[in-house]
Design brief:
This protein is an alpha/beta fold. It has 16 helices and 21 strands. It has a 10-stranded mixed β-sheet, with helices on both faces. Strands 16-17-21-18-19-20 form a 6-stranded mixed β-sheet, with helices on both faces. A 5-stranded parallel β-sheet has the order 3-2-1-4-5, sandwiched between helices. Strand 13 and strand 14 form a beta hairpin. Helix 1 runs parallel beside helix 4.
């Protein structure tokens, strides 16, 4: 059933997406194109996703201008696009249909049973794992993921099966647009309080999200997370079916003997007290094992065989921007990781410590959003202090105003590392040389944070390659305030 107020994809006419290169927007563009909807989009940077959209028949304009809207029926924007953007203003002047990214995604979901994954952390990995399990079970799900599923090289696909697996974004309440058959809530922590005011307001929104599930559907929650436990209790009181996973003794799907090292993570699982055997992932991280349990439990409640589920997980290749290995040059391993919240940064760095072994860990961090960096500065600094060296870039905060004294300089100064081991670098172009001047054979480098930093990995590889040819050509700076 199509929720009230939601258009079917075929009713949108020709669709234009402003800022089509980002992960979320490019995923929607791909879904619409594969459903036969004519799509155009505008960008200022040649994102990796654009080549695939062109191959599917999308028209990509490498500039923002009013003429991009000629012949367009529907304009799609994301929260990052300001209201006074020239294409937004022109769309209003022409009287075109204007949809938020999430509204366009809801249209692309029509005709499918939705499995929506929400939570402060873990949405992308949980979505990717469940998608791969359903694919290996031959169920041909549609999906949209906040990162490219490495096995299929895509962040979105329109399948022939009945299920549509998608992340549900809580940052701007748009998760409340969906009417899922299954709702998964991985965890609930303080974030996006510029939208919700306080943690209680955020919890209320997750409760509302859970109540939107079909009457014959269910909710999956983490038994180990206090925030989700409170939400689960309220959902049960509202008459919803709630299943739980985790290491907690009272979890429906309980994990025991969890082991993580550089080669992956594995654990034993029981469902309602009955042993299911071992499940494993070829990617490291105890927290990733917990995310996989959400996917396992959902698949079990949908009726899949445990052996089929385990086989799907065992070949999970990871998701781009989640512990993605960009390359190894001169014995230095370069990873990219999306984490930007203190909790996810801590878990990512703990896992990367396992990967680094006896080597040092250097983080290149681009903070995401001015308000978050300001309000969580102490927590961000504590998490980043787990590294051996940290390079902090300026905050990525489209549409936000950064006051004097806020941002990257203040964050770098707060990190609990000796002055020689932390530095603020304002210019993107200076970062690769700074990294090349600091690392040694056996070290691990990770780019981490806001979406643009995903493009830095290739430049670091180039700088390390040049250093190998010219060993004396790079030297680090040492002052936190260096520009």
């Amino acid at each position: 059933m199509i929720p009230a107020g939601v258009l079917a994809a075929e009713d949108l006419g020709r669709v234009h997406l402003i800022g089509v290169g980002g992960v979320g927007m490019s995923g929607i563009a791909r879904l619409l194109l594969t459903r036969g909807v004519p799509v155009s989009g505008s960008e200022l940077r040649e994102w990796p996703s654009l080549a695939g959209l062109r191959a599917l028949g999308g028209t990509i304009y490498m500039q923002h201008t009013e003429s991009n809207l000629d012949g367009v029926d529907t304009v799609v924007y994301s929260t990052a696009i300001p209201a006074d953007h020239l294409e937004m203003a022109e769309a209003r002047r022409r009287g075109l249909r204007i949809l938020h990214r999430s509204e366009a995604l809801a249209a692309a979901m029509t005709g499918r049973r939705t499995i929506a994954i929400a939570g402060t952390h873990g949405k992308t990995t949980t979505t990717s794992m469940l998608t791969l399990i359903l694919q290996h079970a031959g169920m041909s799900p549609s999906f949209v993921i906040g990162g490219e599923l490495s096995e299929v090289g895509s962040n979105a696909h329109h399948g022939s099966g009945e299920y549509f697996v998608a992340e549900a974004d809580e940052s701007d309440r748009t998760m409340l647009l969906y009417r899922p058959h299954v709702a998964i809530i991985t965890n609930v922590e303080a974030d996006h309080l510029n939208t919700y005011g306080d943690l209680a307001g955020l919890e209320d929104a997750f409760v509302e999200f859970g109540t939107l599930t079909d009457s014959d559907g269910f909710v999956v929650t983490c038994a180990d997370d206090p925030g989700v436990q409170a939400v689960a209790e309220r959902l049960r009181a509202a008459g919803k079916t709630v299943y739980t996973y985790g290491e907690s003794p009272d979890a429906d799907l309980r994990l025991t003997e969890v082991h993580s090292n550089a080669t992956g993570v594995r654990y034993l699982a029981t469902l309602d007290g009955e042993p299911l055997g071992e499940f494993s992932l070829p990617v490291p991280g105890r927290h990733l094992g917990l995310n996989s349990a959400a996917a396992v439990l959902t698949a079990l409640r949908l009726g899949l065989d445990p052996e089929v589920i385990a086989a799907g997980l065992a070949v999970h290749p990871g998701v781009r921007r989640r512990f993605e290995l960009k390359g190894i040059i001169g014995g230095v391993r370069v990873y990219d990781e999306y984490a930007y919240h203190p909790t996810s940064i801590t878990k990512a760095l703990e896992t990367l410590r396992e990967v680094a072994g006896d080597g040092r860990l250097l983080v290149v961090f681009q903070p995401y959003r001015v308000y978050r960096t300001r309000e969580m500065q102490a927590e961000l600094a504590e998490a980043l202090s787990l590294a051996d060296e940290v390079i902090v870039m300026e905050v990525f905060g489209p549409g936000e105003v950064r006051e004097p004294g806020e941002g990257g300089v203040a964050l770098a100064a707060t990190i609990d590392l000796p002055p020689r081991q932390k530095i603020f670098v304002a210019s993107w172009e200076d970062v690769p040389g700074e990294v090349a001047g600091r690392v040694h054979e056996g070290d691990v480098v990770v780019t981490m944070g806001a979406p643009p930093i995903s493009l830095m990995g290739e430049e670091l590889i180039e700088a390390l390659t040049e250093r190998a040819a010219n060993p004396g050509g790079y030297a680090p700076r040492h002052a936190v305030g260096a520009e």
